[in-house]
Amino acid sequence: MGVLALSAAVVVAATPPPGGSHQLGAVEGCTNQWLFNGVWRLRVVKLEPITKELVNYPGYAVTLEVRNGAKKTTSMAYSGVSDGGTIVLDDGNTLDQETDSQIAWHTPYFKDLLPSAGFTQTLKFYYPNVPTTVGKPQKYILEVDPKKEGTTAPRYTTKDPTFRVNLAC
Known about the structure:
The protein is mainly β. It has one domain: Immunoglobulin-like (Sandwich), CATH 2.60.40.1240. Helix content is about 5%, strand content about 35%. The protein has 1 helix and 9 strands. It starts with about 25 loop residues before the first strand and ends with a strand.
C-alpha cells in the first residue's frame, strides 16, 4: 500500500505593483535634473507653495525649463505633448493647471521652436476649494502621446516619452 504525503500549500501575497493609477511609462528624474525623450529636454527648476487670491485656495507653482532637443523646428502642441501637466500629491490626489496659467502656457506651447531654442514658464496648480489638509507634491507629470504628433514632427527616441519628475528629490 502506498503512502500519499500532502503538504500545506504556502500562499504568498503578491506585492502590489508600484505606482497605482498614476504609473505611466515615462522618462523619470528629479527636480533640477534635465530629462530628454528624444525631442524635448525638460527640467523642473522650482516648486513653491502658493495661495489663490480672493478665495485662499492653496496650491503649487512649478517652474519648467523646456528646450527643443530635436534636429528640426517643432512645437510642443504639434509633437503630442499634453496641455500643462498634472501634480500628484502624497495622498494620491491630483491638481490640474489653473485656467489663467493654462492660457499663459499656450504662448510657448504653440510656438515653433528652432533646435536648441527653449523657454521658461511657471505653471500654477490649485485645489478646487480649501481642503482640511494640504497634500505635499510628489510628482509632476507631463504626458506625451506620440500618436498625436504631426506627420512631419520629430520622432521620439524613448519608448515612453511622457515626463515624470519626482518633486521630493
